[in-house]
Amino acid sequence: MRRIAVLWLLVLPGLTGLRSEEGWETADWKTVRTEENRFVVNGLDSPGTQGVALWMEDTLRRLNREFGVRVAFEPLRPVVVVLHPDLENIRLFQQGRGRGLVQEIRAPEGEGFDSLRFAETFLEAMLYRFMDQQVAEGRPVPQVPGWLTRGWAPEFVPERRGALQAGGLSRWRTGQLNPPYSLTGPGALAGGASEDDLWAVAFLWAAVPDRERIWREILKSGGLSAAWWRQALDAGSVRDVHLAWEVWMAGRERRFLANPAAEALFREQLARELVLIPGRFGLDGEEVPREERFSLAELADTLDEHWVSYLLQAWRSRMSMLRFGQRAERLQIMDLYIQAVDTLLEARSLRGARREEALARFRRLYQAAEDL
């Protein structure tokens, strides 16, 4: 069973040899350690810190299960993440190799946090670790392809994926989207537009089911040449590869614009999301009912419990991520639930008649969402 422990610490387990910023030693750090000490996330905002830790663990599992990226970790050398509002850019620091590899990601916290850029950086760190573990000792580690991290990242960031997919489809309709074999060759680190990389990587995983074949070529040459694409797709020429890609893109456009099962799938997922389980969001502690299941209406009756606000904020962040790329009628439902949670958080800070007024607003918003 997955466990993520929330630790309230005043010390920052930073990367050896890197200088901490001024004032960090006295900051009120919130630290989350994930299962088997793979990741240690430090931040000032507890729900945000927990959310990043959960996302990293979920992404790591998907990398293994869906894409054949199996990464080992040393228990005493976790990947360290530092989130702080004074940081301006997302940066990856790493040194050493093998069992001595040390990695740290620093990123702005709060409004400056760029989820897509963070995903790219995290994937770069995981792919470097994966490649390091695949090559023999003494051989250099291939450079992580930029087109791969840029194109892959939206797969793990729902709130950005829809807009990038739509932009790429628009470019494809006008003949401006670069085909995959023109972006993925060895040394092709600059890549094209983000939409080009996204669709190139999506086509790669769809067209070549043999994951090991992909990784073998990237480890050997640093990229996927046009000749490799011809062999992988059993195509007689690059023109045949291009035709296969065009046919696949046409299918993706139809699927993107009209999925007959989308409404049922949306309702099923929304029903799951409306069951709030504290442990699912990384909340831990003796007084936290980690495995209990709560509805928003039930949480309205337990507002004064210390863990409720963290659970509501974490759920709100997740719902905000899931809303992007949805249709207008679905957004209306999701936004009503989000407004209901905002009202609950407001009510928690109030007392007496003002709290009752806020709870009444919550019930109206909640019922409106349930009725749609």
Describe the structure.
α4 packs across α5. With 372 residues, the protein is of the alpha/beta class. Strands 1-2-3-4-6-5 form a six-stranded mixed sheet, with helices on one face. The chain has helices spanning 46-67, 115-134, 146-152, 158-173, 194-207, 211-221, 226-232, 238-257, 262-273, 296-300, 308-323, 328-348, 352-371; strands spanning 5-8, 30-33, 39-43, 79-84, 91-95, 102-108.
What is the terminal separation in angstroms? 36 Å
Structural class: alpha/beta
Q: Note the beta-strand portion.
A: 5-15%
The shape, in one word, is globular
Q: Report the average pLDDT across residues.
A: 84
Number of DSSP-assigned strands: 6
Radius of gyration, whole Å: 23 Å
Largest sheet strand order: 1-2-3-4-6-5
Estimated helix fraction: 40-55%
DSSP helix count? 13
Write the H/E string, N to C.
EEEHEEEHHHHHHHHHHHH
The parts where pLDDT drops under 50 for at least 5 residues are 1-19
Give a quick account of the main beta sheet: strands, pairing sense, barrel closure.
6 strands, mixed
Brief characterization of the structure:
The chain contains 13 helices and six strands.
Structure characteristics:
372 residues; single chain; globular; 6 strands
